[in-house]
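Schema walk-through. Below, the input block comes first and the output block second. Nothing else is stored per chain. Lengths vary across the set, and this one has 70 residues.
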Amino acid sequence: MQLNAVYVQDGEWIVAWLVEMPRVHTQGHTIEEARENLRDALELMLDVQREDSERELAGKIVLKREALAA
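--- output ---
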């Protein structure tokens, strides 16, 4: 799977977000900094989502877990 990032100049900042996940957004002073911050924001969002999912699974019988290759 490939995610598409958008970088927009906003004053002194470069604002960045993922087209497919608009809630994953950040900023930086350079495109490189914004890109790295965007990767960090995506990783953090996925960590939070995993934690939320684990709480929802508490007490349930899990039949199978697998990693999907995208």
